[in-house]
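User: Hey, quick favor. My workstation is busy. Could you predict this chain's structure for me?
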Amino acid sequence: MNDIIPINKNIDKMNDNELLRNFNKDNPPFGRINYYAIFAKRITKFKNILKEEILDNENNIESAMGIIKISWLPLISILCYVKEESEKKNFVSLAKNNWTNNNFEDFKNFIKDDGNLSKYL
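Assistant: No problem, here it is.
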């Protein structure tokens, strides 16, 4: 599933301050969702932003591509790029405990065929 949110090399080259500054722009260079993978790779610095993006009500309503909710993308990024298993499990629990049942079930159905991601559910 890494191809859902691939690492954008231009974003990956940014230092943490530049990354945050660009992400917070009205129209972030390279698109807002492309920052989630880099945030996940640098989870120690960007854990709170990922949490906010997963919990944001608008992100849980708005779709990015078809049925994919924007709030799913930071969680998918975490499952793909974070190395610490406990961190992945904590973020899945965060989503499960805060998203609507329908949203979480739709998310589970979306990733069910990817064994590397679905094992955390």
